[in-house]
Automatic annotation (TrEMBL):
Xref: InterPro entries: Metalloenz_LuxS/M16, Pept_M16_N, Pept_M16_Zn_BS, Peptidase_M16, Peptidase_M16_C, Peptidase_M16_M, PqqF-like_C_4
Keywords: Hydrolase, Metal-binding, Metalloprotease, Protease, Zinc
Name used for this protein in its record: Protease 3
Residue intervals of the Peptidase M16 N-terminal domain: 21-156
Molecular function per GO: metal ion binding; metalloendopeptidase activity
Amino acid sequence: MHKSPNDPKQYRYLTLANELKVLLVHDAEAPRSAAALSVKVGHFDDPNDREGMAHFLEHMLFLGTEKYPRVGEFQTFINQNGGSNNAWTGTENTTFFFEVSPHAFCEGLDRFGQFFTAPLFNEEAVDKERNAVDSEYKLKLKDDVRRLYQVHKETINQAHPFSKFSVGDLTTLADRQRSVRDELIEFYRSHYSANLMGLVLLGPQSLDEQQAFAETFFRDIANHGEAKPEITAPLVTDAENGRMITIEPIKEVRKLTLSFSLPAVDSYYREKPLSYIANLLGNEGSGSLMSVLKGQGLINTLAAGGGVSGSNFREFTISLNLTPAGMDKIDDIVAAVFRYINIIRQKGLDEWRYEEKKAVLEMAFRYQEKSRPLDTVSYLVMNLLHYAPEDLIYGDYMMSGYNEALITGLLDQLVPDNMRLVLIAQGQDYDQVANWYHTPYKVVPFSNEQLAQWQQPGHDDALKLPEPNPFLCEKFEPHALADDADQPPQLLQDLPGFRLWFKQEHEFRVPKGVVYVAIDSPHAVSSPRNIVKTRLCVEMLLDAINEAAYPAEIAGMSYNLYAHQGGVTLQLSGFSEKQPLLLQLLLDQFANRQFNLERFNNIKAQMLRSWRNAAQDKPISQLFNELTGLLQPNNPPYPVLLEALESIEVDELPAFVEAMFAELHIDTFIYGNWLKEDALALAEILKDAFRVTDQLYGESQRPLVHLGKSGTLRHEVRCSHADSALLMYYQSRATTPRKIAIYTLANHLMSTTFFHELRTRQQLGYMVGTANLPLNRHPGLILYIQSPVAAPTQLLDAMDEFTNAFSLVLLELNDAQWQASKQGLIAQISEPDTNLRARAQRFWVSIGNKDTDFNQRQKVVEALEALSRADMVKFIVDIIKPRTANRIVMHCQGQAHKDLEPLQIGSEIESVNEFQSKAY
C-alpha cells in the first residue's frame, strides 16, 4: 500500500470470510479510535413505491439492537466516552461512523457491529422515527439546494434511479397493506450484504488487536452473495439534452450552469483526466475565462469540474455567478466558454501542465497532515469501495501519467449538443412546478441560432492559457530546529501599536507555516456604517488580489482577509517558502488600492444580495445570527448591516481607509517552518506597509452585553418559514477556568439526553440540540429546537420541563457514568492538535484571549477534574432552572403556527439600542 513518507501510521487490508472488505489503521498517537462502515446501498435502491426507504433505514439502525435494545443507548454510550457519531445516505452508498476514547473502542464496536447483524426495528421507534424523517424533509422545503436538486431529478431521464425522491416523508413511509416495518426489514435483509460493504478501523490499538475486533464483531454480517445490479439506463438521453432549464430560487441568486453528461470516469482515478480539464477551465489567473468575463462585468465567480456522479454517469459542470449585465448576455457567455474549450483543444494539451499539477499533488501527499480520526475513516471507507487496495491512501493524489487521447476523448464530449444549460434566477418564465419542493421551472430546447453560435464560437485574443506557476515551491526540507523550538510562542516585539509573536514548529516537521496579522482600528468598528465599510473594503481587496494570487493557491498556499469585532485579520497558510512573496503581493495591492466604481457596484450588490438572502435561512440559523448581533454590538445582525450598506457610496471609502489606518494596533503571529530572523523580516515588511511608527493606540474594545440579574428576556425574530424555532441562551458573568468547565460540562451532559427526549421521544423536530457558545471569552450555553409541529409556547414548555427535571437525571447517574462522562469531555478538551494549522489556530485564539502562558486548556481540565456532581446539580438548580434563570429566549413563530398563542414569557427586549447600552 503506497503511503506518504511522512505518514507514520501502519495499514493492513484484509477480507473477512463473509467477503467484508476491511482496512485497519494503527496510529500510535491517535487521541481517539474511530470506525466507519459503508454499504453500497443508497436511494437509487429504494423501491419505486417506497422512496426514502434507504434513508429511513439509516435512521432506524441507531435505535436499538438485540444486545443493546434501549433507544438512544448508542448515542449515550458515545457521548459518555468522549466521542461523536453520525451517518449519511447518498445515491449509491450509506455510511455510518463514530469515534470514541480508545479504552471504549471494543465496546463501541460491539454496539456498532450489531447495527448490521441484529437490529430490532422496534415498532414504537419505527412510528416515531418516520416523523423525524418527515421533519428532516420539511426542514428543507425552503432550502434552495434541495429545491434545485429536485428539478435536476425531474429533468433527467426518468428511467434512471437518480430521478427518485431521496428523503422520504409520512406518505412514502406510511403503513399500507403491509406495514412499513415489514418492508423495512425485507429491504434490510435483501440489501445489507457483507460483500457490498467496507469497514475501516483506526486507533492506537495494534493491527492484530484491530483484526481481532473486525473478526469478532463483523464476521456475522450476512453475505447474500449477490452482485449489485448494474444501472443500464443513461442519466440523460437525447430527449433531455440540448435543453435550457430555468428555475426560480427563493434566495436572490443568478447562476448559470453548463452541464455535460459523460460516462462514469471512476476507473480513471489514477490518470485524473477530468481534473486536467477542470484546472484549465476553472483557472482564475490573468487571461483566464473567469478573468475575461469578470473584466467585461458579466460574472462574479466561475467554478469548473463539479456535478453529480454515479456508477454509470458523470456530470461535468461549469458554473458562473452572473451580474445583472450577465443576465442579458447568457448566449454570449456560453459562446465564451466554448471559445475557451477550443483553445484547450488546440493549444492546451501539454505534458508540462499535467506534470505541474502532478507535482502539486505529490507535495500535498508527501506533506499531508493528519486529520481527525473520524474524518480519516470517513474518507478511507469510500476509497475502500472504489480504489484498488494498493491505492487506498494514494488514490486521491495520484496522477499516474499524461494520457492525451483520454483527455481529448472527454473534451470531445464538451460540445453544445451534449449540454444542458441551467439558469437559476428570479423572475423568469415558468410553466411547471416540481414535486415535493414546489419549485417553479421551465424546460425549452436550444434554438438553432444558439446552437449555431455555440458550435462556431469564434476567437477572442484576450483569452489565454495559464503560464508556468511562479509560486511552486522547491525547498521542502524543514529548517533545522532552534534550541528553544519546543517553547510556547514568544513575544519578540512589544512596541507601541505593534506586537510580534513567534514560534518555530517543532513537532509536525512539515515545510509549512501560518501567518496571522490582526489589524485593530477603533474607527473600523465605531458604528454599524463603519463596520459595513470595513467589510466592503475587505471584499474589494480580495476581489482585486484574486487574479494575481490565484497561482499561489494552486501551489498549496492560501490566504484570507476577514473582518472581526476589532477590525480585520489577514491570514496566510500552506507551504512557507513562497509565503513572503504572497504577503508582498497582498500588501502591494493594498498600497495601490483603487476603488473602481463598477467593481464597487458589483461587490455592493453581491453583499446586499447575500445579506437579504439570510432572511431566507432556516429559522434556527436566523436566531443564532440575531442572538450574536444582539449581544455583540460590533457584530451586527444582517438587517442592521443591510440598512447601513444600502446608502454607502464608493467615494466614501478612500477617506475611510485613511482614517482607519491612522489609528491602528497590529498583533502578528508567525508560526511554522520559520526561523526567528524570518519572523523579524516579515514584521519589518508589515510595519512599513502599515506605516507603524510610535502609535499609542491600543486594541479596539470588543463590547458584550452582560445579562446580569435580567431574569428571562425574550426577543422575537420574524421568519418567513412554516417551522417555528426557539433558542435559549445562558451566559456566565465570569470567564474563569472553573466557569468554562461548568458550562462546557453542562452542554456535554445535556446534549444526548436533550436530543433523545425532545427529538426521538417527543418528536418535536429534526433540528434539536444544545451548544457551547462562548462570546468574548464569556462561556455560554444554548438549547435550541426548530419544529414543524409545535409553536414557540409549546417548545418553551418542553425545554423548561427538561431543564426542571435535569438535576434529577444527574442524580440518577451512577458514579461510574458520572466519571465516564467527565473523563470523556476531558479527553476531548485534552486532545492533541491534529496538525500544524489546528495548533496555529489554538495559539492564535490564546493570544486573542490574553492567555499568554498558553495553558488555559490545562486549567480548564484541572477545573473539570475538581467538579463534583453536587457542583453540577447546584449549577442546574441555581442557573439553568427557569424559576431562577437569567437568560434570553429567542424565538420565531412559523407560518404553520401563526394562529396559535404567541410567546409571552418574561420581559420583551423592546429596544435593541437600549439593551446594547449595557455592553462593556
